Amino acid sequence: MIIGIIAVVIGVLYLLKEYIPNFNINWNLLWPATLVLIGIYNMIKEKKITSFNAIISFIGLWYFFETLNILPAGINNIFWPLILIILGVTLIINNSKRRR
Question: Which range of residues forms the domain containing residue 66?
Fold first, then answer.
């Protein structure tokens, strides 16, 4: 369902761009917001926070804040190491929960 909603919104934005003069789509803000919305939607739907949804939301938020220049300079160097650390910790926690 969420993919359908996203497709409709993107289609409407393209139509608005075609027929309204000076209407501009800022894709640099739209795609990170889409990632955040997908992650949050899945968390609400599943009623739990999974590592996939958390990472998708984190990536979306990171790029959203980066586009708005909210993040301090030079912080991009730690983005992918943080993603790997978060993924590793969640895998370790999930593996230890399964063993119990």
Answer: 27-99
